[in-house]
Amino acid sequence: MTAPASAAAALAVPAGASMVPADPVLAVAFWVGIVALALTLLLGVQIVRLRIALRRRQARAARALARWRPILSSAIAGDLPPDLPPLARGERLHFIQLWVHLQSSLRGDAAAALNDIARRVGLEHDAQAMLGRRARAERMMATLVLGHLRERSAWPQLQRMAGNSLDPTLALTALWALVRIDPDAAAAYLTPLFIENDDWAMSHVAGVLKEASVSVESVLVEMLPGLPRERLGRALRVADALRVTVPDELLVGALDDASVAVVTAALRLVNLPGSRERVRALLAHEDWQVRVQAAKALGRIGDRGDTDRLVALLGDREWWVRYRAAEALVELPWLGRAELDALRGSLTDRYAADMLAQALAEERKSS
């Protein structure tokens, strides 16, 4: 027998014999290899399917944008089309994403034109249906749509979403939508909620309530006299974040409070001379944060006699107190550049003179 023939005879598997090795270790390795090969093939098939699905979604999105972007752009420009093409089911999500993107940067007539287009294609009904779905992204998008449309019928659903403590971002978006829909009703509902909840960042509170600041002001002014001490500081910070004007008579008790947080929050709101005497007394407060805010407040409401009080604060042991006192002096309307330069030259405390010089340099740079 020749050599090739003998090799072929050696590799041939006898009829009825199994390809699985008889050795248990080799058999396990054989089946592991088979399973790994099968999984690799399945993974490859799945990757191909996902790629095909992605390309199809991208093609649908491109077609939807090519169809609706010119229509929305014309509406923004004031040229509302008399007839609209039907909004296909596969286009709806892409249309909503484009519509929300455009709406977020518009105001006035342009935003109203987009709202008109949205209602003509029944977007408010789609958005309300999306609120009940499990996909978080769809619920977020639907909340934005309903807020921009000021859809009053969605109020109960949005109010339930606003109470969802497990998803603060979605809850804040729902709160924003409530303010857009009905600022007065939202102010009455949200203001106590924000005062009671310390977990909400003040920047978020201001962002949500800024469109209802007038309504919030009336709610706050009504609430402040009856608030417990532990909530008063939070309420005053909300007022400060929204630039709400709080009457002096409501700040009187807060300025005399034993809590540093309450006093500093009240000082930020002082804008009328009726609180001048109390602010002057707080210049000597033992807490440096109070002295900082008192210096700033005196710069807003002080008279000529307060110049010496602010000059005295330039020698405070705390850097921030000296800095705010110098800023207040620079901002006093009756002190011109010549008077301030003369004042700086007359200071015997080197640190006080340096601080006033820094405030003057910053004022020159900004002007």
Describe the structure.
The structure is a single chain. The chain is an all-alpha fold and 367 residues long. Among the domains are: 53-77 and 90-179, no CATH class; 281-367, Leucine-rich Repeat Variant (Alpha Horseshoe), CATH 1.25.10. It contains 20 helices and no strands. It has helices at residues 3-11, 24-76, 92-103, 108-120, 123-131, 136-149, 155-162, 168-181, 183-196, 202-209, 213-223, 229-241, 248-255, 260-269, 276-282, 288-301, 307-313, 319-331, 337-346, 350-366. It is elongated and about 100 Å long.
Write the layout of secondary structure elements.
Layout: H1 3-11, H2 24-76, H3 92-103, H4 108-120, H5 123-131, H6 136-149, H7 155-162, H8 168-181, H9 183-196, H10 202-209, H11 213-223, H12 229-241, H13 248-255, H14 260-269, H15 276-282, H16 288-301, H17 307-313, H18 319-331, H19 337-346, H20 350-366
Helix pairs in contact: 2-3, 3-6, 5-6, 6-8, 7-8, 8-9, 8-10, 9-11, 12-14, 14-16, 15-16, 16-18, 17-18, 18-20, 19-20
